[in-house]
Write a structure and sequence with these properties.
Layout lengths: L1 H22 L5 H18 L5 H8 L14 H8 L7 H20 L9 H12 L2 H14 L4 H4 L6 H21 L20 E6 L6 E7 L2 H11 L9 H11 L5 H5 L3 H4 L2 E6 L4 E6 L2 E5 L5 E5 L7 E6 L9 E3 L1 H12 L7 E3 L6 E2 L9 E7 L5 E8 L11 E3 L8 E6 H19 L11 E6 L2 E9 L4 E4 L5 E3 L4 E5 L1 E5 L1 H12 L6 E6 L3 E7 L3 E8 L12 E3 L5
Length: 561
């Protein structure tokens, strides 16, 4: 409440300043620049207070639309400048566009506003850029360059009824997949009640003795069955057309697991890193973001921007195609694929126009060079996802890691079928994500250790800085080798659990048994496997107990090299 009171006081001051500025608008552009900059900075502070802005909008009867790809600043202008009349629509739109431009500038160049008054610095930037008309023009150009195209904005969104149809269709597919699954794990719990489909949810508690469980009870309530199916029944992407499937599987190996996303861990999953800009020798902090690159030879590379080393995946599809140049997938499209199509399994509802390869984009409408056209088979909605040339990327500010060329010598190698790696995942990581929830990067969760010997793989967790050891270690945390895996060599490596968890999750939920190779030295771990789509090679850097990744085998990605 104290925070909201302070925000209310600042809002009152802003409104007072705005009232004065309005009287002298024609003769005081600088005052307008200052008030727009102050309004933006107030919004940044206010939007971090949960529910605060929505309450104000409701009190002021300000209605607005949530934009698909951009922050909608119209309600902010209407709130602060008290512009409610439809006659002000053009002015509201113009000033909202100015706030979008200020937002882009502030986010992309935080080092400029770190050591001086941010309002003065933003006013200088607006003046140096040629005023509001100029910065809005630059924003429009940037919006187009990054693919925020009119074509997509004008698409009609699925209705609530269509969204429900989507969810029911996905649920039906999950139900069918669960019914057809083949498993050797069977146990008798006595008489239980089930519905027509014979599904039942068991509530059990681990006893702490091996994999032994103590049954608490059972239920066949339909909504509980549906929730369990949505959490446990994986859908196969094998029926997607090759290029669309390759994109989905590349992202799937490098994204946040669905369970952690539901726990609200997304904002913590991608870490912040320090980036030095060569042109001014400044250093500033940026958030990691995965970038998907489709190479000119049709292979895919996924790794994080703004880091010297990261989880990096290469996919070589069996269905070959070529492009004129290396291209990268638009960030907002990657986010859509990741959050909705992958983690909510809606990808199975889409079909792509292109079977193999990417279509040429219409350069008269967008600055993208390639696109993939998708259609939802349930809602009939169409959407294109866009790919851009590296010509418009500032090489100094975009450090995407990849594996350096040259031979890598590994200390140990485990070869086996995916069943062993499924056991490794379920024993050490399936429960871990439910225990840590959103706390994925707390000091004791930044690293885990794989200690590999003839006995098996021991996964040590929960680092104690005071004791300088992993407190969860010993025989209880050992995954022994069986007939499904064979070891060569031995060694130890520390890894960030957020780097390896999703790859093991994908292997654990693969509907087909695959031959998998995991190998490592003290600096790098590599997992390779192959399915009907193609070959996968996942590289995971080792890290320190504080989470700092080892960049020995990584180099900066150079497009079209």
């Amino acid at each position: 409440m104290k925070k909201q009171g302070q925000l209310n006081d600042k809002l009152a001051d802003l409104r007072s300043d705005v009232a004065e500025q309005t009287k002298v608008y024609e003769s005081s552009k600088i005052l307008l620049y200052r008030n727009l900059a102050k309004s933006y900075l107030w919004w940044r502070e206010a939007q971090s207070e949960l529910g605060y802005l929505d309450t104000l909008y409701k009190e002021e009867n300000i209605k607005y639309r949530i934009q698909l790809n951009r922050q909608n600043f119209n309600p902010v202008i209407r709130l602060i400048f008290k512009m409610q009349n439809s006659l002000h629509a053009v002015q509201i739109s113009n000033w909202a566009s100015a706030l979008n431009a200020i937002d882009d500038e502030y986010i992309n160049n935080p080092h400029i506003y770190k050591n001086r008054d941010a309002v003065d610095a933003l006013v200088d930037w607006i003046r140096d850029s040629g005023g509001l008309a100029s910065i809005c023009g630059k924003t429009a150009e940037k919006i187009e360059a990054y693919g925020y195209d009119k074509e997509i904005k004008s698409k009609k969104r699925p209705s609530k009824k269509q969204n429900e149809r989507e969810k029911l269709t996905v649920l039906g597919l999950r139900r069918r997949a669960a019914a057809e699954i083949e498993t050797n794990t069977k146990f008798d719990v006595g008489p239980v009640g089930t519905g027509d489909d014979n599904f039942v949810v068991l509530l059990a508690k681990a006893t702490g003795v091996g994999s032994e469980l103590k049954l608490i009870g059972t239920t066949a309530q339909e909504h509980i069955i549906d929730a369990a199916l949505n959490q446990t029944a994986a859908l196969d992407l094998a029926n997607l057309k090759p290029t669309f499937r390759a994109l989905c599987e590349a992202i799937k190996l490098n994204t946040i697991p669905a369970a952690l996303q539901l726990y609200g861990a997304r904002k913590n999953f991608y870490q912040k890193t320090t980036l030095a800009i060569e042109k001014d020798e400044e250093k500033y902090t940026v958030t990691e973001n995965s970038r998907v690159v489709v190479r000119s030879d049709g292979t895919l590379l996924v790794s994080k921007m703004h880091s010297r080393a990261s989880l990096t995946t290469y996919i070589t599809p069996k269905a070959k195609f070529t492009l004129a140049e290396d291209v990268w997938l638009r960030g907002s499209d990657r986010f859509w694929l990741e959050t909705e199509l992958i983690n909510e399994s809606a990808a199975v509802l889409y079909t792509s126009t292109e079977n193999i390869g990417l279509a040429q984009a219409d350069r008269r409408k967008v600055k993208a060079v390639n696109q993939l056209n998708l259609k939802n088979t349930v809602t009939k909605q169409e959407r294109s996802i866009y790919f851009y040339s590296f010509d418009g990327v500032d090489d100094r500010t975009s450090n995407q890691p990849c594996i350096a060329s040259g031979k890598i010598d590994y200390d140990w190698s485990v070869q086996g079928n995916s069943a062993f790696f499924a056991r490794l995942y379920h024993q050490h990581f399936a429960g871990w994500q439910h225990r840590v929830k959103h706390r994925v990067h707390t000091p004791n969760n930044k690293a885990v250790a794989f200690d590999v010997s003839e006995k098996g793989i021991a996964c040590e967790k929960k680092w104690s800085k005071e004791e300088n050891v992993f407190t969860q270690s010993g025989h209880r945390y050992l995954s022994p080798f069986g007939t499904d895996a064979k070891l060569t060599g031995s060694g130890r490596i520390l890894l960030a659990p957020t780097d390896i968890i999703q790859t093991l999750n994908v292997l654990a939920n693969s509907p087909a048994q695959m031959h998998v190779q995991m190998r490592a030295n003290s600096h790098l771990l590599n997992i390779e496997f192959e399915n009907s789509l193609g070959k996968y090679s996942v590289f995971i850097p080792s890290c320190t107990t504080s989470g700092k990744r080892d960049a020995r085998y990584f180099t900066k990605f150079t497009p079209n090299d």
